Amino acid sequence: MRIGILTGPTATGKTAIALEFATAHPEIELINADSMLVYRGMDIGTAKPSPEERTRVRHHLIDVREPDEPFTAGDFHRAARATIDDIQARGRRPLFVGGTGFYLKALLYGLWEAPPAPPGLRRELEQLDSATLLEELRARDPASAGRIGPNDRYRLLRAVELLRSSGKTPTELQRQTPAAPDPRFELWIVDRPNAALHARIHQRTSQMLEQGLIEEVRSLRARFPETRALAAVGYAQVCRHLDGAPVPGRQVPAGIAGLASEIELATRQLVKRQRTWFRGQKLGQGFELDRQTGALLELMSRTYFG
User: How far is CA 111 from CA 47, 181, 184, in A?
Assistant: First the structure.
């Protein structure tokens, strides 16, 4: 049985398409493939499906972690495979929805098995600054160092941890993954012209602020002050706004108008990165919404129901 993955840049309308399709076909259950929707309490800033929508159509892998608990690509891969088995065992059909690249890559290609790290190694590495970690990684694995860069401390720590614990580079370990994607999956990539997508981003940002995004962030920071999840687009900009911190190299209007412009800019930058990732995969079939929405829904119907 073929399994669809409905993906594309943020704010394109993936969730609405998936809900329309699943409502018309009650055999369908949706599996989240967005890294922020797994966290409880992060509702407004992630445009999480509403309680009514989740009652109307069954969703999986939403609200499965607290914001300070990790949910890695490996966690997603294992949970997704188990969820597929559960859905199919009940005679239903799974449809993935979301645009997190490392989740989709794990789903399509599987994961290499990382060796366990010696106890205490992570604590030892956490005493080193990011520049030192990057220098060590660059000396052994320039390709990984180039992909990770100096600002992603979490991935830097994990990469150096792998180097020291296994004696192999992350690049060598990743070569253990299959060269071809799992043939069970069919990838559908939706997008919109820039003008239309930017208008949707503007509207969604306004709605999030009206719905209480600032209060959501205040609550999350009070409960989880050290969580990396608050570095996500939307949340990071609200944190800076609450702290009154300047934006390096840019003059930002004061107040809510300035905050909205920063969220919109960060969202457009995220869209650019997501589009680059999708182009680099050379997989799947692309659809421009709204012009090709009907063709997409027709293809989804043929895939699932012949």
Answer: 28, 12, 16
77-105 average pLDDT score: 96
* Every domain of the chain and the residues it spans: 3-111+178-305, 121-174
Rounding to the nearest 10 degrees, give the CA dihedral for residues 301, 303, 304, 306.
80
pLDDT single digits (tens) 1-52: 899 999 999 999 999 999 999 999 999 999 999 999 999 999 999 999 999 9
For the chain, the average pLDDT equals 92
- Whether the predicted pLDDT of 111 surpasses 80: no
Confidence of residue 98 (pLDDT cuts 50, 70, 90): very high
What is the Cα–Cα distance from 284 to 7, expressed in whole angstroms? 10
Pair 117, 125: CB distance under 8 Å = no
Burial of 100 (0-12, 13-18, 19+ CB in 10 A): buried
Distance CA 99, CA 107 (A): 12
What would the two tokens of residue 227 be?
């969580």
pLDDT in tens, 257-295: 999 999 999 999 999 999 999 998 888 999 999 999 999
Residues 230-248 have a mean pLDDT of 93
CATH 3.40.50.300 fits 3-111+178-305, yes or no: yes
Q: Which of 168, 105, 106, 174 is nearest to 137 (CA)?
A: 168
- Give the Å distances, CA to CA, from 31 to 42, 46, 221, 277: 17, 16, 28, 21
- Residues whose CB falls within 8 Å of the CB of residue 68, separated by 6 or more in sequence, listed in order: 224, 226, 227, 229
In the CATH scheme, what is the code of domain 121-174? 1.10.20.140
Q: What is the mean pLDDT of residues 57-83?
A: 94
Q: How far is CA 199 from CA 132, 192, 260, in A?
A: 42, 10, 13
